[in-house]
């Protein structure tokens, strides 16, 4: 009897932990242009479990849909930072930042102005 | 009852999880205060600093996240809100409010959009034609909308019916899949006149796909697809009026009325009328140069949109009545019909059409969607040409169900679904009755891959069971690769199969004394076999910057190879023969197109096309008749800067040149009716000026064929139309000559949103 109760309790507990297959969120990612968009979306979609990633040049928002059982926002943010783009959670290393095309250097005020 | 049950359940639920996981997780909710009320935030990020563990809040703002005593800093963030870091000391419930960031400034971006554009990304070779471009050809219906588009060739109409036919890749319009909002619409009985049954102002934009096309819309397309998007009641002007008059006696009136019925419903009423009541015989051959016409065309659209729940629906009802009279100048149908007094022809068409579309996009998962299309039409056309009669009733039903989703992630998209088609043809040709009922059921699957930078591909397969065409597969494949900046290489191949409706498709044959002979008897369609063809294409698009101006250049080459074709043989001037292909039939078409902004606001479009279209006829292999080998196209457009009150000028000029065209053999005709082997070359010049006075009002004037090029004797044996060798089909150039027109557009804009 005890085991059954424990079993039910455990199952219920698992149920509350059930993670969303189609979790949706929006994170902010720095970038300036269409090339950045491709790079950011590619990095996001390259993370296992990400189903959809759409970055807006105007708002700098990356809309994500991903499987919470397979990944989380930190992982995705990390991948994006590795591709060279700063985001709310993780700042890209200088090395990663240097690797992006010179017209995409979003930290540079001059480049930013050019895209405005 | 439910409520009572629910409570203890929730209690047990909470209690149990508390028991088993009290040390392992933290629960909470993320909210914001909107005018004093608590509102949940969906999609907020909740994560432990320095640990790779994060969760997203659900629709109710609730979340639960694993917890260990050594986790201290919990970060809660969401776009548009200030992020907060909470220091966590125990696993108690968290109720947290986020503060919105000060509103970001709105960003407005405006660039000059091109009115015709080719995609650098799509795997298919698609040319988008916006309504701006459509305005360049001010008159009047879809058959005349391609004057500024070199990918489509527009035939000079036959000398009796004045119907313009479009061609793609050197082949006639039946080989093009013509759809309105992706529902096959111009097929069967409507094939000849269908394009003139879609008024130009109803069209919001056109998409022209060269080559095999998609499997989603059916198996019939061989050379390409033309899709017309119609005006949407929610986007079109509340009131739009367009009036047009030409010196060729043509008068047209278009009225659009669009209203918002409720939050979710919009409706639009589109009324078109045109008329030509004046008789013209400029070339003095005793025949009308242009038929007398009268058309009433009414469309009512209902649009339902519920974006919150992802539902969009359209319901259309369309009615058309079209009357045409042509033939000899003195022909009066009441007296002279079916007599030898005068030769004349009439054609009456009545058509009713209704269609329904429903699309559902999962608001939570925008890449999943479901679409249903259904279309029903009834077409009744009665015509006679002298003593020859052609009557056709065509009832058609089309339905398609499409499901869109992804595999793994949005780089891999799929489309799959089923379709059903039914057609019933009841036809009277002279004194022979033809009755045919066709139906088909099919399924399709299309996979699209996008590596997000330089490669996209679409691979589709459909299988259909058709009562006359049998069971067959239709594969289609498109690939785009971008090896360097601003370029796109495309390859495609695909198969198409169709049943030829020979009399409806070559309706103009009746305006001649030719005997109709179908040489085969064993096939299921007028004794003929289905047409099967493969299409292969390669295309290269390169964008460039030259002297600070942008441009693009395209080279494409398409080959269509018929496995079987219903050969239309005009090579004997006493008869027209239809028979199954024995040997080869192919079309090789090369096109070079250059678009360049020559000067500030001056756009140039230049194109050269080469046609090599050959068929094995019973008398040998010939180039397709009345098709040039070379075509040169030049278009220049200029528009002034828009002033503050919205006024501007627009100028547009188009030159078209066609090389010699082969006449079908007239060896069997008496010497007086024999034609040379080839026609002379033809060059035509069109121009148009538009003055926009404001957002509300504009007028335009234009000229067609301003250098007055004419085919001198378009009708063979026009003196004795009831005798042999009378033929109005051997037309290579304009019949009427120059013509000028003027028109106006008036619109009331929507009240601007506050």
List keywords for this structure.
heterodimer; A: 116 residues; alpha+beta; Alpha-Beta Plaits; 3-stranded antiparallel β-sheet; 5 helices; 44% helix; elongated; B: mainly beta; Maltoporin, Chain A; 2 domains; 22-stranded antiparallel barrel; 6-stranded mixed β-sheet; 4 helices; disordered N terminus
Description:
The complex is a heterodimer of chains A (116) and B (754). Chain A is of the alpha+beta class and 116 residues long. Chain A has helices spanning 2-17, 34-45, 73-82, 94-99, 109-115, and strands at 23-28, 50-55, 61-66. Chain A has a single domain (20-115), classed as Alpha-Beta Plaits (2-Layer Sandwich), CATH 3.30.70. In chain A, 44% of the residues lie in helices and 16% in strands. Chain A has a three-stranded antiparallel β-sheet, covered by helices on one side. The longest helix of chain A is centred in the first third of the chain and has 16 residues, at 2-17. The radius of gyration of chain A is 19 Å and the shape is elongated. Chain B has 754 residues and is mainly beta. Chain B has four helices and 43 strands. In chain B, the strands form six sheets. Chain B has a 22-stranded antiparallel barrel. A six-stranded mixed β-sheet of chain B has the order 9-10-16-17-14-15. In chain B, a hairpin with a 2-residue loop joins strand 12 (166-168) and strand 13 (171-172). The two termini of chain B are 47 Å apart. Residues 1-22 and 103-111 of chain B have low confidence and may be disordered.
């Amino acid at each position: 009897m005890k085991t059954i109760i424990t079993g039910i309790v455990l199952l219920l507990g698992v149920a509350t932990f059930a993670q969303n297959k189609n979790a949706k969120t929006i994170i902010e990612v720095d970038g300036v242009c269409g090339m950045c968009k491709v790079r950011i979306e590619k990095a996001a979609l390259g993370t296992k479990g990400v189903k959809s990633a759409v970055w807006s040049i105007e708002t700098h928002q990356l809309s994500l849909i991903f499987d919470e059982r397979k990944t989380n926002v930190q992982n995705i943010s990390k991948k994006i930072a590795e591709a060279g783009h700063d985001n709310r959670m993780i700042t890209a290393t200088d090395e990663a930042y240097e690797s992006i095309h010179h017209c995409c250097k979003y930290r540079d005020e001059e480049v930013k102005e050019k895209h405005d | 009852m439910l409520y009572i049950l629910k409570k203890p359940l929730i209690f047990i639920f909470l209690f149990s999880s508390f028991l088993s996981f009290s040390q392992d997780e933290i629960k909470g909710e993320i909210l914001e205060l909107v005018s004093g009320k608590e509102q949940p935030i969906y999609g907020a990020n909740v994560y432990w600093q320095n640990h790779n563990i994060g969760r997203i809040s659900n629709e109710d703002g609730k979340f639960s996240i694993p917890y260990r005593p050594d986790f201290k800093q919990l970060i809660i963030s969401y776009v548009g809100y200030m992020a907060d870091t909470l220091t966590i000391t125990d696993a108690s419930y968290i109720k947290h409010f986020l503060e919105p960031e000060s509103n970001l400034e709105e960003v407005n971006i405006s660039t000059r959009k091109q009115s015709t554009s080719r995609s650098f990304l799509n795997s298919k070779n698609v040319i988008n034609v916006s309504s701006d471009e459509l305005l360049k050809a001010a008159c009047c219906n879809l058959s005349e909308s391609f004057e500024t588009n070199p990918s489509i060739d527009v035939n000079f109409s036959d000398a009796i019916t004045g119907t313009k036919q479009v061609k793609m890749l050197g082949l006639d319009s039946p080989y093009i899949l013509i759809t309105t909002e992706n529902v096959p619409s111009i097929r069967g009985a409507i094939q000849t006149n269908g394009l003139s049954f879609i008024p130009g102002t109803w069209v919001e934009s056109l998409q022209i796909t060269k080559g095999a096309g998609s499997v989603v819309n059916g198996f019939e397309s061989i050379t390409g697809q033309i899709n017309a998007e119609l005006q949407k009641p929610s986007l079109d002007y509340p009131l739009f009026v367009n009036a047009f008059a030409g010196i060729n006696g043509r008068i047209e009136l278009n009225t659009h009325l669009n209203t918002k019925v409720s939050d979710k419903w919009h409706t639009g009423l589109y009324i078109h009328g045109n008329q030509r009541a004046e008789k013209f015989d400029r070339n003095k051959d005793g025949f009308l140069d242009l038929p007398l016409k009268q058309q009433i065309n009414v469309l009512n659209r209902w649009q339902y949109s519920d974006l919150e729940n992802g539902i969009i629906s359209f319901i259309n009802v369309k009615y058309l009545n079209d009357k045409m009279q042509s033939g000899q100048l003195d022909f009066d149908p009441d007296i002279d019909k079916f007599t030898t007094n005068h030769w004349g022809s009439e054609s009456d068409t009545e058509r009713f059409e209704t269609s329904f579309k429903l699309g559902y996009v999962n608001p939570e998962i925008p890449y999943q969607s479901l679409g249903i299309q259904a279309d029903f039409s009834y077409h009744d056309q009665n015509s006679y040409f002298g003593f020859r009669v052609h009557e056709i009733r065509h009832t058609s039903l089309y339905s398609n169900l499409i499901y869109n989703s992804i595999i793994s992630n949005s780089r891999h998209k799929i489309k799959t679904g089923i379709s059903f088609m039914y057609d019933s043809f009841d036809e009277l040709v002279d004194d022979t009755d033809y009755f045919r009922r066709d139906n088909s059921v099919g399924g399709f699957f299309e996979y699209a891959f996008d590596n997000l930078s330089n490669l996209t591909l679409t691979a589709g397969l459909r299988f259909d069971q058709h009562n006359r065409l049998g069971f067959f597969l239709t594969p289609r494949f498109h690939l785009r690769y971008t090896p360097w900046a601003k370029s796109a290489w495309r390859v495609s191949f695909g198969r198409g199969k169709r049943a030829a409706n020979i009399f409806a498709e070559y309706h103009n044959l009746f305006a001649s004394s030719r005997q109709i002979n179908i040489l085969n008897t064993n096939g299921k369609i007028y004794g003929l076999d289905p047409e099967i063809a493969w299409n292969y294409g390669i295309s290269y698009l390169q964008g460039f910057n030259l002297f600070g101006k942008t441009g693009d250049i395209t080279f494409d080459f398409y080959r269509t190879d018929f496995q079987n074709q219903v050969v239309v043989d005009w090579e004997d001037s006493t008869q027209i023969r239809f028979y199954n292909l024995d040997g080869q039939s192919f079309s090789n078409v090369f096109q070079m197109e250059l678009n360049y902004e020559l000067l500030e606001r001056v756009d140039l479009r230049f194109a050269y096309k080469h046609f090599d279209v050959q068929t094995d006829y019973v008398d040998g292999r010939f180039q397709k008749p009345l098709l040039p080998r070379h075509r040169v196209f030049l278009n220049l457009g200029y528009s002034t800067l828009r002033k503050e009150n919205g006024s501007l000028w627009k100028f547009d000029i188009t030159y078209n040149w066609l090389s010699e065209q082969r006449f079908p053999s007239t060896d069997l005709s008496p010497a007086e009716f024999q034609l040379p082997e080839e026609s002379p070359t033809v060059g035509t010049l069109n121009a148009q000026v538009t003055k926009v006075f404001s957002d509300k009002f504009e007028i335009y004037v234009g000229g067609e064929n301003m250098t007055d090029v004419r085919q001198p004797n378009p009708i063979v044996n026009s003196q004795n139309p009831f005798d042999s060798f009378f033929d109005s089909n051997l037309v290579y150039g304009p019949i009427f000559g120059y013509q000028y027109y003027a028109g106006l557009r008036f619109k009331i804009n929507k009240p601007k949103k506050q």
